[in-house]
Amino acid sequence: MTRERGTHAGPRPRGHGATTTAGAVLVLGFLGVFFAWPVVAILRLGLRSGIDEVLTRPDTWRIVAFTLGQAAASTVVALLAGMPLAYVLARVPVPAKAVLRALITVPFVLPTLVVGMAFRALLGVSEPSAWAIVLANAFFNIAVVARTVGGLWAQLDPRATDAARGLGAGPFRAFRTVTLPALRPALWSAAAVVFLFCSTSFGVVLVLGGGRYRTLETEIYLRTVRLLDLPGAAVLSLLQFAAVLAALAVAAFARRRRESALTLRRARGATRRPSGVEWVTVAAAGAVLLALAAPILALLVRSVSSRTGWTLAGYRALSGTGGVLDVSGWQAAWNSLRAATDATWMALLLGILACLVLTSLRNRWATELMDAALMLPLGVSAVTVGFGYLVTLHVLPGDLRTSPLLVPFAQALVITPLVIRTILPVLRSVDQRVRSAAATLGAGPWRIRREVDLPLAGRAVVTAAGFGFVVALGEFGATGFLARPEAPTLPVAISALIGRPGELNTQMAYAACVLLMLVTAGAVLVIETLRSDLSGEF
Amino acid sequence: MRRSTARRTRAALAVAVTLLIAGCSLTGTGRDRETRTVTLVTHDSFAMSDELRQRFERDSGFELRILRKGDAGELTNELVLTRDAPIGDVAFGVDSTYLSRALDEDVFASYRPEGAAHIPIKYALGANERPTPIDAGDVCLNIDLRWFERHDVPPPEKLADLVEPRYRGLFAVPNPATSSPGLAFLLNTVDTFGDPGWRNYWRQLLDNDARISSGWQEAYNQDFSGSSGEGPRPIVLSYASSPAAEIGPDGQPRTRALLDTCYRQVEYAGVLNGTDTPKGARELMDFMLSWQFQSRIPEQMYVYPVVMGVELPESWQRAAPLPESPNQMKPERVERNRAEWIRQWRSLATG
């Protein structure tokens, strides 16, 4: 394993040792209190009574194999489908690109139960289907690929590809030998995140697997929540842990080999009309967009359908109060926005701090370990974390277990790795020579951070914020197993409505989905505007 | 360069400040520790109108805080896990399927609320005074009346009918391993056909092309033809109360619950052991048996009140009467066998 970065000898961007240590302590402290401690506590409760026969049962290993297999397949599909979109976002002058970005992001927030039901109807699958699971997982995660890869792609200097083309390389060869290697950090980042999301995917596997297809996540849920079989759940959690660590090790290994300094530049001016075979990619992106739009359209149609024709009854009911909901749809939307804001700023703070620490550490193993530790919450069962909170957090003052603050904390746990995966590739790609030059000119470590790293990573920071916000709006991770705040958010309202009989409740549920999509699209548009302001600065 | 840096810094600051302010709006809602608060831990299906809540708060002097956690199973298991440091003062929603676990683990303190004398004997737990029945929700087969009329097929009446060839491919049921009503249905088949007779019944049911979905939502909203989803199957496992939500513009219900196929789930509430607000907890228990609360149970939670003399809404009396002799299983028997029955069901259903 050679370290290509070594070719650019020079000072690594290093804060004062003490500052780095303080940052590391804060980040790892948060991770320790809100992740490691609860998880270890609930595992210990389970393992106290000894490991039972879970490991020797053949269906346990079938479940492990299916978990990894469906996650890998979903990741491949998401990568293949996300790449054309990343290309279009980065290189093609599309009018109103912010709208396109918003559209791509919308699937990410939709409740898995509702999307699972939409897929069930659209694909006409009445029987449990592994392929439907893979497609639905990919549907949720295409945004991760398009945005992570597209973000880096937009900042690659297009002249490198032009030079390759000028030297006689065909478009495919130029892509394979110039663009693809440069994109690898982002590709591996995206792949790792998508893989972790898919390996812990829960609602989709339940709805489309009908209970026949079982993953570690659904099995841990069954044993913990329904059977309170903590020993069995603990063993499965350990297996999940091992699988996640193995996946992270593979990704880290691949990333290390490939990462090199890139010539980053401002994104403006890198787009141009596609020509020749590039249109094929654009067409592929169009097809992916249509596929993304189909379930969304299905939800829209359902929200205005009744037995007798079109109706706006669901929307009208949603704008008032009463029935199952104790608040109006607007109030729920506002609650969602507030909760997501809290989670996002916490995650940004932690994520940026973590990135600075990760690029400052000189010990490679320490870097890899910390990086992997911060990714773990994505790959560990939400049930395990949620139940872990129950048996630990009362020890802290103020009993966080029932505090509305716990929800943003738990969400920050999921968002922080995404923040890191978005910002870190860009920071790591910064040419060391630029930093060296700044140091030669007399800039101190923090000045280098401010004047070199921050401007180059600025776009990534805003991207990360936007993405984190969207994750929080969709309520991923442990929040499903925390005490529901009294102020219901949109996803909570949707699940309450869809769980009741009656046409109006169903219409309201779908109308609330549409509202959630609009809120998401609006948030993404605002953030896009902010981002283009930023990128114009350098 | 300098100017643009300053502008950037300003922009970043503005963003940070906005985020912080917005953040504070949530963090600022923490309740004043001085007020007397009573916390109700319950499941996601719990609903209580603002009006009722205000009435309780006014009459008792306690502020009511409601924590919702998953379904009855999740709620019970979380109560067990937090027994030594309870997350609330009163729990509502532990049902007959999980009651025995809560009792074994000593989750509830003894308290006999005012009004407990008006609960009919059929809901009572015997000499034990804890916890207290609050409502009953029966899980029954529901049928799409129009479908059976149109296809000139006589509707089924008993569970055993479902394995007949004429009902082939007509039944949708949620998975007992992943869904609460699904588990109630499994218990119903055990109660009806005995152990191990139920396994034979399920094999025939599956051979007769019963469709299993992971949750009630898919079975009822998507597979069932009588709901607004207008799916392909006219028989579904749902609740005795569901037809009350399917009344057409002509005032006639579109669906009917088959009252000879019902399994009774009683939901209980109790004061949690270790509460630091016993007085408030008792007030809340009394309130849940009060006429005001009981009479609103049907429309708010789609289940039936337990207190004698509390009338059902008019539409319920027509479309969703309370089943008279539903099946029921002793909570201890459920507790002893639940995990094993689920395991056996899974191995016969998924091979």
Automatic annotation (TrEMBL), chain A:
Keyword Transmembrane on entry: yes
Cell compartments where the protein resides: Cell inner membrane; Cell membrane
Q: What is the lineage of its organism?
A: Bacteria, Bacillati, Actinomycetota, Actinomycetes, Actinopolysporales
What family, per the record? Answer: Belongs to the binding-protein-dependent transport system permease family.
Q: What protein name is recorded for this chain? A: Thiamine transport system permease protein
Q: Which residues form the ABC transmembrane type-1 domain?
A: 64-251, 333-527
List the Gene3D superfamilies. Answer: MetI-like (1.10.3720.10)
Pfam families referenced in this protein's UniProt entry, alphabetically? BPD_transp_1
From TrEMBL, chain B:
GO annotations of cellular component type: outer membrane-bounded periplasmic space
Q: Which UniProt keywords apply?
A: Signal
Q: Where is the signal peptide?
A: 1-27
An example GO biological process term is:
thiamine transport
The cross-references to CDD domains, in alphabetical order and at most eight, read: PBP2_TbpA
* SUPFAM superfamilies cross-referenced by the UniProt entry: Periplasmic binding protein-like II (SSF53850)
Q: What InterPro entries is this protein classified in?
A: ThiB-like (IPR005948)
Which terms in the Gene Ontology molecular function aspect does this entry carry?
A: thiamine binding; thiamine pyrophosphate binding
Q: Name one Pfam family in it.
A: SBP_bac_6
The protein's matches in NCBIfam families, at most eight in alphabetical order, are given as:
sfuA
The identity of this protein, by name, is Thiamine transport system substrate-binding protein
Which organism's genome codes for this protein?
A: Actinopolyspora xinjiangensis
